[in-house]
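Quick one: examine the sequence and fold tokens given here and explain what the tokens say about the fold. Here goes:
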Amino acid sequence: MRRVLVVEDEALVAMLVEDALLDAGFGVIGPAATVEEALALLGREKPDAVVLDLNLAGETSTPVADALAARGIPYVIATGYGASGLPAGHQHAMVLAKPYDPNELTTMLGRLCAQAA
């Protein structure tokens, strides 16, 4: 089973993402609502992919994206800012514009996990 780390500060969105992932057959790690929580989970877990909200309660999740890139873990950036708001060095990342369809998310993650395999 592919395991996905969810990094999302809005509890309702995190629950919806978690439900969509479980329904699609993914395992869920988290959710992490802060950069600190996400980095701590990455210290203990090796997810197959990550759903990363770019803005966590006003804090940028760029340090998490940097850690994922350094470890070669694929990720999808979920943002309301579009591709123009991506942090430096992460323009290659898959972007999912908020609000998004959970099916779109699970399809993207399936592709990411297949590419990484």
In short: Residues 33 and 68 are 16 Å apart (CA to CA). The first strand starts at residue 3 and ends at 7.
